[in-house]
Write a structure and sequence with these properties.
The chain is mainly α. The protein has 9 helices and no strands.
Length: 148
């Protein structure tokens, strides 16, 4: 088990991981379930796993780098079993002005690819694109109105 713990410490030191990621790893590597709780407890104690730090990193990466919307980020964090209060705390770090600029920029880029479409079809496709990216329909509609 000591070798497993060292492997997991190495994994966590290379990339931010959450409890769900480590549980999945141990299941895939057929680690007996009896050891899961103690290994995770030790990784948390040694600060290799920190759900708040993980959530903040996901929000930053998905929002800034992947240009995901709030809904998609929240869904992703919930799929990793991150507690609601930690998700809310991490999501609060998103700057509203910068977020709206990303939505506007993404919609403008998408609109270019829709040249030749009828205005109604273009608006529908832009809204579908925005929602697939996890942006709120209400905010997206503000920018689609101006682009159509």
């Amino acid at each position: 088990m000591d070798q497993l713990r060292k492997s997991l410490q190495h994994l966590c030191s290379r990339q931010e991981k959450c409890i769900a990621d480590i549980q999945d790893y141990m299941i895939r590597h057929e680690v007996p379930a009896d050891f899961h709780a103690s290994i995770i407890e030790q990784l948390i104690k040694d600060k290799f796993i920190d759900e708040s730090r993980y959530a903040r990193a996901v929000v930053h990466d998905k929002y800034k780098l992947n240009r995901w919307g709030r809904k998609k980020i929240v869904y992703f964090l919930k799929s990793k079993k991150i507690p609601e209060e930690i998700i809310n705390e991490a999501m609060a770090s998103i700057d509203e002005k910068a977020y709206r600029k990303i939505i506007k920029d993404e919609l403008q880029k998408k609109e270019i690819s829709l040249k030749g479409e009828k205005p109604d079809v273009k608006r529908m496709k832009l809204l579908q694109f925005a929602m697939a990216r996890g942006y709120e329909a209400e905010i997206a509609k503000e920018y689609i109105h101006f682009t159509g």
